[in-house]
User: Fold this.
Amino acid sequence: MLTPPGITLEPLGVSQGYELGKQTATFLPRDQIVFADAGGKTLYTLDADPAGKSTCAEACAADWKPVPVPKGAKAFGRWTQIRRADSTLQWALAGKALYTFAKDIDPGSVF
Assistant:
């Protein structure tokens, strides 16, 4: 699947596949793949956000980090961009703003 700059695909699950009921991840496939930021952090949408708008700011944005759009990146297909109240651009998927969660510590972690 084609993703925009700064967005990747990440196997879901904590380091090395543990937490997925597997003894080892070396020879076993992961159960799910999710969209992630360049650091492997899982991307989320927030139910409170209406399509095309991010309502998460200040204290909310301390836990739910907006996924920034790199300079010069273009929207395409279902990948869109939302202008936040502070004038920065945030990635959105199908109109829903995307965030990482500050307490996810490993690539593929899930809140």
The longest helix spans residues 59-63. The longest strand covers residues 7-11.
